[in-house]
Design brief:
Helix content is 66%, strand content 13%. It is of the alpha+beta class. It folds into 2 domains: 130 residues, no CATH class; 141 residues, Reverse transcriptase/Diguanylate cyclase domain (Alpha-Beta Plaits). A 4-stranded antiparallel sheet has the order 2-3-1-6, with helices on both faces. A two-stranded antiparallel sheet has the order 4-5.
Length: 286
């Protein structure tokens, strides 16, 4: 989206420049009569061809330029035939015949170059975003990294016969909280929650932020009973958080839902495993 906005700004700047240039030439023509009327008309037509080629693209721009050459060339030939020696075709008139397609080509090529540059930049940004596997706000894994880690842990659990559990933690009414307390306070809430989760879990427990209001823990070598113990411990500190809003610290009460699922023997798919934890999350009374 940002690159598209940049393209629009570039387009607007080019058209604005052309418009200002035309206005200046028009003012000079009207005020000082420095340009012959024929030259002014040809200049205006060439400017129009530049704008058309930029907006319509190289091929259509060249077609428009060649149409202009055809009609202007026909006009010159008609004048030469009907008026004879009275109408001489000047060097400047010949130049316009080459200038129309040349201007259309340059403008159309510029449009294509800018478009290609924007598309390459968008692809580069998209590729970079796909390479990023961490949530910027918390330092936890993002959703993509979570599924990669979960698939890896499922394979280990199956290979070594060890238990594996996952835990989902969802902040209830997060959008409403954001509208009440603002982005700064809610950002502090997310950061504080992530810090507390890190403090109360093991280093081997993999932590992720799946959505703006949802966290996930991959608990290796942990069965459902062990996960329930961790859930109780996390619930105790999550119920009351002390948050700084930049001026003072306040204690805010939040509601959470926590869902737990232990890997079953028949399960091999990370998505299905996580979806089962999602269902447990919905049934949690918070």
């Amino acid at each position: 989206m940002e690159m598209r906005n940049t393209k629009r700004l570039i387009d607007g700047g080019i058209i604005l420049t052309l418009t200002i240039f035309v206005i200046i030439v028009t003012v000079i023509f009207i005020s000082y009569q420095q340009l012959p009327i024929n030259t002014y008309i040809l200049f205006a037509l060439n400017t129009l061809l530049i704008a058309l080629a930029y907006w319509l693209g190289l091929v259509r721009g060249l077609i428009a330029g060649m149409v202009a050459v055809f009609f202007y060339g026909t006009y010159l030939m008609y004048g030469a035939v009907t008026k004879g020696p009275m109408m001489e075709i000047s060097y400047q008139q010949i130049v316009w015949l080459f200038l129309f397609p040349f201007s259309s080509y340059i403008s159309g090529k510029l449009s294509e170059t800018i478009k290609e540059a924007v598309e390459r930049s968008e692809k580069y940004i998209k590729d970079m975003e796909e390479l990023v596997l961490l949530d910027k706000e918390t330092g936890f894994s993002n959703a993509k990294k979570f599924y990669l880690d979960l698939s890896e842990e499922i394979s280990k659990s199956k290979r070594y016969g060890t238990p594996l559990s996952i835990m989902l933690i969802k902040i209830q009414y997060f959008d409403e909280l954001r509208s009440i307390y603002g982005d700064t306070v809610c950002s502090n809430v997310i950061i504080n929650i992530s810090k507390k989760i890190a403090e109360h879990t093991r280093d081997i427990d993999k932590k992720a932020r799946l959505e703006k209001d949802k966290f996930a823990l991959i608990l290796s070598n942990t069965d459902e009973k062990g996960a329930l113990v961790l859930k109780e411990r996390l619930t105790n500190f999550l119920e009351n958080l002390e948050i700084s809003d930049g001026k003072d610290r306040r204690q805010l009460k939040f509601s959470f839902k926590i869902g737990i699922a232990q890997l079953e023997d028949k399960e091999k798919d990370a998505i299905a495993f996580k979806e089962r934890a999602e269902r447990e999350l919905e049934y949690d009374v918070g």
